[in-house]
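To fix ideas, we quote verbatim a fold written out as tokens:
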Amino acid sequence: MQTVEVKVTEVVEVVKEVQKEVEKIVEVTATPVPEWTRPHPILSDIRVRQAIAHCTNPIELIGSVYGFLPEEQCAKQIMDTFIPKDSPWYAKNIDPNANVVTYDFNPEKAAQLLDEAGWKLPEGGRIRANDKGEPLAIRFTTTNAPFRQTWGAVWVSQLQKCGIQLLPSYIPGSIWFGGNSGLRRRDFDIGAFAWVGETEPPGPTLYACDQIPTPANNWNGQNYMGWCNERASNAIKQANNTLNLEERRKNYVIVQEEFSKDMVSLPLFQRLEATAYNKDLKGLRPDPTEYWSANAQDFELPGRDTIVAALGQEPASLFLLQESAAVAVIVGQMIFGVDVTQYSYGFQNVGLESEDFPRLENGGATLTEVEIKDGDVLVNANGDVGTFKDGKLIDAEGNELALKVKNAAGEEVDLVAGVKVPQLAVTFKYKPRKWSDGEDLKNADFELGYKVACDRESGNTSYFVCDRTAKHEVLADGLGYKVTYVPGYLNPTYYLPPYGYYPSHRVVETEGEFKGKTLAEVPPKNFKDLPELTDKPLGTGPFVVDTWEKGSKIVLKANPNFYLGEPKTKEIVIQIFDANPAGAVAALLQGTVDIVGKEVIGAGQELETVIKEAQAGKINAEPIASPTWEHADFNLNTR
């Protein structure tokens, strides 16, 4: 009996130990996955994303909004990477053998991929389902602009023929592009919008692994898909961390190859655009890469003191650090001014003291070599920023990074203490000017600009440049600042000012805890909540906010203190035509509106109308093949 009892006791003890181990294992596997890092139950499968691409007929989408264009012209607007095919940066224009994956309209191929992914079409059914009986239904979010509702409805129909149910939601642009909603919070499954074409190709904030917005990083970055492809991420960082043009081109080929292969964002088409305006209006410069508002001080209508411009939606805020919608930028250009313009795929200096930008060639920038020592922050050969400590390079999250850096000759060498790495410093001297309240712009305003831009709670869309800035110093002699970047960071557009300025002297008048304090005394995290910054900000541009009737209009008056001279018109009224481009175009033809920008007109009937009316001599409007492109992003993660 005693022997049996001993054996039973031993068995029981073993069972208890096993139970304890099981409990430990269950506890580990049950640990909650952080929000927006969980794989999407449908879209995380590349076969589903590829099937959606094969189910999409871009010619039909383009025809739905550009019905007046011949099919051969529509075909020229189709894209397969994030760079239009007519750009010198397009992968196959750099390397004809680039491995860019194209997804032709092929419903049969799509059906095969969906079957392989476990999404079968039930007998007699129209919508595919998995083995649990769950339908292949995906939320589709975009703006309520008629342009997107038009092609969006066609796309919904196309995917339904493949057994994919899109659940469309057309919401106001102020919500979709808002600082605390929509895209910024990755609140979508498939989301459609347009990236405005740039003079330089898009950078790391869109496609690098460390630029994925999550609650954990306070929604920092614009990689809304949650796409992390190490080869592409390294290439996009290296493309934006070299002064060598050929190296940049090579890396942009890599990013486009991986982008097309992974199908994380479906390029739909390059837009045809036109800004339409009163035929008597002088000074307006329609351009593919710059907004019509960039030179508003030159606008002139003979015999009239007021010019009326239409916007298709109301800006959610004029705090542009957080608000990047086109309508906010347009109004912002007239209030804050433009120090650098981007006409015709180039950069032009407006607000800096010298005629040219500060460059290595003219002494405005310097490139020196520094010895790396323990504790230094630097950028490695992959374009990652980290701290060199105890023989390791560690990023902000504690991850170990590659121990390779580039020397002054551009060669990769081992990262060890004492190795020499190039360091870039640039001095930005500004033309003297006054704020719209008459106060001089001063260096304290530049200090505040840097402080707010790089404060982790300010709501900035990206801290990429902040993380690569070693030092920001206002000038002892002159107006402006000097930026010294961390060793190893070689920004190819280093000559463009990276930071702005705020009126540090302005006293808060809004009721609350900051009333009576200057902006310099307000924590940056509260800037986005102050009407002094969101509704009626001071600026150094050609116009000032006089009144803002929410939902109706914004009245701008000429700034008597504008440093480039008195604007040629005394008043610009911004009339809000919320998601109503037809109304804006009708008002232009009736003579009650003088400017309807390309961002309002969009495509379809309104574009056709302004082109025909311009041909008849009633207005001015010139269609432009735009680098702006429509696309649908796949969110690879869920909450």
In short: Residues 38-271+631-638 form a domain with the Dipeptide-binding Protein; domain 3 fold (CATH 3.10.105.10). The chain has a mean pLDDT of 92. The longest strand covers residues 624-634. The two ends are 59 Å apart (CA to CA).
